[in-house]
Amino acid sequence: MRKTENHLFKWIDEALIDEIRMVDAKHERVAQEITKFEERVMEKVKSKLLELAEMSKSSKRR
Questions:
Q1: How far apart are CA 23 and CA 18, in angstroms?
Q2: Rounded-to-integer distance, Cα 14 and Cα 22, Å
Q3: CA 43 to chain centre
Q4: What pTM does this model have?
Q5: Residue ranges of the alpha helices (H) in 1-62?
């Protein structure tokens, strides 16, 4: 293999590694955002369930 071909393959390998690192970092950010979203949804569901339970209790008292 000629020196220029070897240099080209090395450059391509480095570019692919950089791209993989960027995708990995983006994947990590997306995973964190999904976790935060799940937590917010669960808090809202819990809040609504408590609200419904209170409404149910107060309607039974009447």
A1: 9
A2: 12
A3: 18
A4: 0.67
A5: 3-61
Rounded-to-integer distance, Cα 13 and Cα 44, Å = 47
Would you state the structure tokens that stand for residue 37, as one six-digit string? 């979203």
- What DSSP state is assigned to residue 1? -
Sign of CA dihedral 44, 48, 53, 55: positive
pLDDT of 4-42, one tens digit each? 778 778 889 999 999 999 999 999 999 999 999 999 999
User: In this structure, what DSSP letter does residue 56 have?
Assistant: H
What φ, ψ does residue 2 adopt, rounded to 5°?
Answer: -75, 160
Q: How far is CA 11 from CA 5, 7, 19, in A?
A: 10, 6, 12
> What pLDDT score does 62 carry?
62
